């Protein structure tokens, strides 16, 4: 029949696209964007109700990919992209908070979502302080698995460590975090009066 079916063409891997992006291939970046922007947008929308912020974060994520594709390690880009996007979202929220402190906007204040309050507590509250007190390799596993919502496999790919190491570090990190939080907020001595 001589025809060539689309199914017969092997899919270009994320790793191959990233190598092409690292060498300046904007078509490879467009292909990577087409492949991943949809799910990134959907996942960011669950964390942020402002569609403009979500669009900016997706755009900033792919600008970062363009600039740092050569530094990507691993075969799949999903975990790496999500880590970049989650960090860009935190950066955008911090910028909004700074702007709100400098120039209070007139009118009724928007009520932050539960997720916004949790993320702010992670960055600025006791949990953030406690996170800063645990070792960096444990902290990065916690941030990837808990804050960024990556799976054990995605975290392993992102950090370049085995999945078993991710699991053991996550257990140690939780124990150290509990200890650090207990030091910040010691329980009162004795029982109820």
Summarize the structure.
By secondary structure, the protein is mainly α. The protein has helices at about 15-20, 25-45, 50-70, 80-100, 115-125, 125-135, 135-145, 150-160, 165-185.
Task: Describe the structure in your own words.
With 193 residues, this protein is an all-alpha fold. It has two domains: 66 residues, Rna Polymerase Sigma Factor, Chain: A (Orthogonal Bundle), CATH 1.10.1740; 73 residues, Arc Repressor Mutant, subunit A (Orthogonal Bundle), CATH 1.10.10.10. It contains nine helices and no strands. Helix 3 crosses helix 4 and helix 5 crosses helix 6. The longest helix has 25 residues. It starts with 13 loop residues before the first helix and ends in a 9-residue tail after the last helix. The N terminus is likely disordered.
Secondary structure layout:
Layout: H1 14-22, H2 26-47, H3 51-68, H4 78-102, H5 114-124, H6 126-133, H7 136-147, H8 152-159, H9 163-184
Q: What is the CATH architecture term of the largest domain?
A: Orthogonal Bundle
C-alpha-based Rg, rounded: 21 Å
Give the N-to-C terminal Cα separation. 88 Å
Q: Output the CATH topology of the largest domain.
A: Arc Repressor Mutant, subunit A
Identify the CATH class of the largest domain. Mainly Alpha
Number of helices: 9
Sketch the topology as an H/E string, one letter per element: HHHHHHHHH
Overall SS class: mainly alpha
Q: Report the major sheet.
A: none
**Considering the protein shown, what is the CATH homologous superfamily of the largest domain?**
Winged helix-like DNA-binding domain superfamily/Winged helix DNA-binding domain
Global outline: globular
Beta-strand proportion: under 5%
